[in-house]
Amino acid sequence: MKYTPLLLLFFSLIVISCKKDKLTKETQKGANTFSCLIDGQIFKPAKSEGLLFNNDPVLYGGLSISDGYYSAAIYAAYKASYPRKYIVLTLDHFKGVGEYLLSDFDNIASYKELITRIPFETNYSSLYTSNGKITITKDDRANAILSGTFEFTATSPDDPGRIITVTSGRFDLNYKK
Q: What is this structure's pTM?
């Protein structure tokens, strides 16, 4: 009986520590969600807690038109702490719902990390691996909703031996908000 409070505390700590952060659900309603795994670690956009740059958006994108062609772009940033992390997905010659291979140079996925010491940033791009895809599952231009999934492998142009793998990516963006 005298160990009961201690056991309750012990099991409470186990339950709290086992509670894992999860990827966002795959939706198609313009929920403004984005998540993926970068080398097995969860990435979700997050704002800085500081006063400086706190109003900068951490998730945005949408469609643009240039020279008669649509382009789609999605930008997600993690700014809550260092390293700061950024993912950008770009589809030139966007045609709507479908699969866009990153072996096509009109489609690029990139990742950047900012740290507080030299070299200060490391960039990775699918341009150097041509490996991966972005799948658009919803293109609702009337309601400004763009949803889909993605996965890619990228390498650093400064050090081709540095490779990252991004898996289980999903986004559901309302680009009017």
A: 0.83
